[in-house]
Structure formats: structure tokens, C-alpha cells
Write a structure and sequence with these properties.
The chain has ten helices and eleven strands. By secondary structure, it is α+β, with helices and mostly antiparallel strands. The protein has three domains: 112 residues, Butyryl-Coa Dehydrogenase, subunit A, domain 1 (Orthogonal Bundle); 116 residues, Butyryl-CoA Dehydrogenase, subunit A, domain 2 (Beta Barrel), CATH 2.40.110; 146 residues, Butyryl-CoA Dehydrogenase, subunit A, domain 3 (Up-down Bundle), CATH 1.20.140. The strands form three sheets. Strands 3, 4, 5, 6, 7, 8 and 9 form a seven-stranded mixed β-sheet that branches. Strands 1-2 form a two-stranded antiparallel sheet. The N terminus is likely disordered. Bound molecules: flavin-adenine dinucleotide. The site of flavin-adenine dinucleotide has 22 residues, from strand 3, strand 5 and helix 10. One of its GO terms (molecular function) is acyl-CoA dehydrogenase activity. Keywords: FAD, Flavoprotein, Oxidoreductase. It holds the Pfam family Acyl-CoA_dh_1. Belongs to the acyl-CoA dehydrogenase family.
Amino acid sequence: MTGARVGSALTDEQVAVRDLVREFAAEEVRPTAAEADETEAFPEDVWDGLAELGLTGLTVPEEYGGFGADETTYAVANEALAHGSLAVATALSVHCLATSCIAEFGTEPQREAWLPEMAETGRPVGMFCLSEPQAGSNPAQMATTATYDPETDEYVLNGEKQWITNGERGGVAVVFAKAAREGGDGRSAEADDAITQFLVPADTDGFEVGKKEEKLGLRASDTTGITFDDCRIPAENRLTEEGKGLSAAFRTLTEGRIGIAAQAVGVAQAALDEAKSYATEREQFDRPIGDIQTIRHKLAEMSTDVSAARLLVREACRQAEAGEDYRVAASKAKYRASEAAMSVTNEAVQIHGGYGYTTEFDVERLYRDAKITEIYEGTTEIQKTIIARGVLGE
Ligand SMILES: Cc1cc2nc3c(=O)[nH]c(=O)nc-3n(C[C@H](O)[C@H](O)[C@H](O)COP(=O)(O)OP(=O)(O)OC[C@H]3O[C@@H](n4cnc5c(N)ncnc54)[C@H](O)[C@@H]3O)c2cc1C
């Protein structure tokens, strides 16, 4: 993507995308967020709107009908969307994880079969099935297997995935499972290095969607378990070579982490905006609370946290676009941005006093939503492990 840099950071095109998504988030997404949270119903109209804007093809290359966004564009779009609703932004980023896997690891026929529709209409909605009940921070511990059947040239999937975003709405899943061909290279189907990536349509026999999780926040986003019960897929649905799935997952998740960090910045910015307007409106002791030094200092600290987190996101994008190893930078951005989301939403509730503790004000939802950014796509502890390895040059 080309274009003149505006100020020190964004190109004209990146500014245009950011402003477009900001407007959509303010007009179409934010007004639906409270009801969607309360009813735990994903706003499908909003999804269709995202598709119309081309955002469901954000990371799909242009030759397959997508936007072909660079990392910075992806980040600014995610920040702007999460300002309207983290649940919607999360659904989109998981859809993008799925399209990225197909674009990066798929064969030409797989790309042609899936990407144009997923980019242009947002359907089928994508899922990314890595986590399992006993395998979260350590996905290598997964138990799902894919057994090759030479008679039918199919893989038979068996196992259970957990915490799958878009689990109910999703139409196609990128699934990680341990695979080994009998008489192949001698690798056992239980070995960590057997992890392989597959593309599984949700209407395949044996693809069973579990019950929707009841969550603290992100309630409009459907999170479910998915069970594979003798789920047969053609061998041509394999995305990576056998045994190459885990490194592919880590690569995709590193890219995804920048998006989650940007979303955390969006949530923090939304909370800061709410706190700022409340501080100018609410009066106590015959003056706006925004005139009280303690509240002013809170706003100063919140604003600094948001700016610092945004800069870390930009730096991770810069490194990725320059072709550098940006794993540590992506982890720093995710760690600090999710921490900012937590502290800024907490202070925004505090500035609202008792009103902030009620569903009448958005800060209550933002506070509940923010917590997930410290957990999914690698917990804060895992980000620190990655950063420490970078510090120690390991
Ligand atoms: C709402 C939601 C949506 C999600 N969406 C998806 C999805 O679409 N697809 C998907 O595959 N997954 C998804 N996840 C799963 C998510 O990525 C995992 O929950 C996360 O990776 C943590 O795994 P876990 O929950 O098993 O926790 P655990 O790994 O059991 O961790 C428990 C605690 O131990 C700590 N810990 C674990 N290992 C270490 C270590 N080595 N060093 C230090 N601390 C450690 C953790 O940081 C954490 O504090 C989602 C989760 C949620 C809640």
C-alpha cells in the first residue's frame, strides 16, 4: 500500500480507512452494542455492513477480492471498530485469522474456492480452532487427531476444541489436529510435531457445535466448544503439510496479536472518551468534577496509557512491514495495550462513580469487555515469556 505519510505515522490511505471505520463504528456499531451485549445476540446487520465496506476481506489479497491491508491499516481498522464494539471487532479478527490461514497456507484451488466469498460477503464466517479444554497456553498439548484413510483419501477428525469464537455463526473452520499417515515418516499421531492445519466446513457430518459460553464480557460474540466425531474431510482440505501446523499457528497468532492489541487501544480510547465527557458534565461541590485535580490527573494518566499503547502497536506494525522479526514487538504491544484497556476502563468506571457501575453507562460494558484482551491470543504471562526470551536473546 502506498501514499504520503501524514504527520509521523499514517499514509493518506490509512487515514481514510481509519476514518471510514470510525464513522461506521460510531453510526452503526456503537448504537447496537448495549443491546447486543444484553441479549447476547451478534448484530448480523453490522456484519453485513462490514462486508459492504470490504472489511471482511481486510487481510485477503486483492487478487482474491480482498483489501490486502498492510499491518498498520489492519491495526487502525481494528482500533476504530473496537471503539464501537469489542465483540464485533473480535468476530472480525477471528474471521481474518481464518482468511489469513487460507491465503498464506492454502493451495490455489483452496484460495479460489473460499477467499472471494469470505472477503466480499463475509460468508461463510471463519473460525480458528486451536484451543482445547486441556490445551490453552500450550497448544502442543492438543489431543484432536486427524487419521488418514487411504481408501477414501480422507482425514477422519476426532477430538474437542474449546473457546471457539464465531462457533455458532461460523461456516468454515481452520482446525489444528495431530495427523500422521500409517507407513509415512514414522511420526506418531500423538507427537507434537504431527500438528497439521485443515479446512473444515461447519456442515460436515461429525462437526458438532457445543453450548454457547456464558461470559463476563464480550457477550455478543458467540464462543462455543466444537466436537469432531468421526468428521471426514477430503485430503485436499489439508492446509499445511503434515506436521507444519503449529509453526503456522504461531505465525498467524503473531499477526493476530497486533490486531488484538489495537482493539485493546480502541476499548481504552472509548473509555477515555466517555470519562472525559462525564467529567465535564457531572457537577459536585458546585463545579464539574473535571475541575478537580484528582480527576484531571486520572484523565492525564489514562490518556498517556492510551498513547503509549498505540505507539507500541504502531512499532510492531512498522517492524512487520519492514520484514523484521516482530514477535517481541507484537507481544509488547499486546501486553501493554491490554493492561491499558484494563486500567483505563477501571478508572473510567471510577470517574462515573455509582453510575459507572450500572448498565446505563457504556463504561460498565467496556470494563467487562476489556478483561478478555489479557487472555485470548496468548495471555499476558505468555506475552511476557516471549518478551523475556527477546531480552535474553534466546
Ligand atoms: C472469549 C474467548 C474467545 C476465544 N476465542 C478463541 C478462538 O477463537 N480460537 C481458539 O483457538 N482459542 C480461543 N480462545 C482461547 C484462548 O486463546 C485461551 O483461553 C488462552 O490461550 C488461555 O488458555 P487457557 O484458557 O487454557 O488458560 P491456561 O493455559 O490454562 O492458563 C491458565 C493460567 O496459567 C498461566 N500460564 C499457563 N502457562 C504458563 C506459562 N508457561 N508461564 C506462565 N503462566 C502460564 C496463564 O497465563 C493463565 O494465567 C478464546 C478464549 C476466550 C475466553
